[in-house]
Specification:
With 221 residues, the chain is mainly α.
């Protein structure tokens, strides 16, 4: 078991390289948040909130928080897109380790990854009919069961190369984020006091998804 935590050994594995890359991305992510706090505490809180909203409630929640608190449209898009890249890279690395029976002692992550893996298996046959286009639209469509993490797992099951898989998944993710940003920005332009409304909706989304995650974890025990 100790060998699995050997950095040199891990770096020789595809999953290990992906894990190291995702850790670097996480460090960069929190450096961005730290710099935001240094420049403006409100900006830092918004970026931090958007990060956790993405992790718990998905890209719609993250984008909505940024738009609701007056973050520039382009900044909102690219920040949330980067957050999704970080989350997908980390999840995919843990997935590769678990799928090849190379487990880390991160039981919380393993259960979440197993849940996403079951979702990917569920839609694998349908998506396989359409190949890359199927994965792209699966990731782009804003439904609770879709998303870049599950989409990347489906790409793996369909034997897509890592580059092709990630290009497809991140393309769909970027389009989805742009659409969400335009949608929320349009709401801000047409409704007064939208921040409070959006905040309530986004909190509801986060609570809903957090409840589902907790139920999945309880069912995996």
């Amino acid at each position: 078991m100790d060998n699995k935590f050997n950095l040199r050994l891990i770096s020789k594995l595809e999953a290990g390289r992906m894990l190291i890359a995702s850790i670097i991305l996480f460090c960069f992510q929190f450096a961005i948040i730290g710099y935001a706090f240094y420049k403006d505490a409100a900006l830092g809180r918004t970026f931090l909130g958007a990060f956790f909203a993405n992790a718990l409630g998905g890209r719609a929640a993250g984008v909505g928080i940024c738009i609701a608190f007056d973050i520039n449209l382009y900044v909102s898009v690219f920040y949330n897109f980067f957050v999704e890249i970080v989350i997908v890279c980390f999840s995919f690395a843990i997935f590769l380790f678990s799928f090849n029976n190379q487990y880390f002692k991160f039981h919380l992550f393993e259960k979440l990854i197993r849940t996403s893996e079951r979702s990917a298996r569920k839609y694998e046959t349908v998506i396989a009919r359409y190949g890359v286009a199927g994965i792209f639209f699966f990731v782009m469509i804003p439904l609770p069961v879709t998303g870049p993490v599950v989409g990347s797992f489906i790409g793996y099951f369909l034997c897509l190369g890592l580059l092709k898989n990630f290009l497809t998944v991140f393309s769909g993710t970027f389009v989805a984020i742009v659409l969400w940003a335009i949608f929320f920005d349009s709401l801000v332009d047409h409704l007064s006091k939208i921040q409070g409304v959006l905040l309530v909706v986004l909190i509801g989304l986060c609570v809903y998804f957090f409840k589902n995650i907790r139920e999945c974890l309880s069912g995996s025990k």
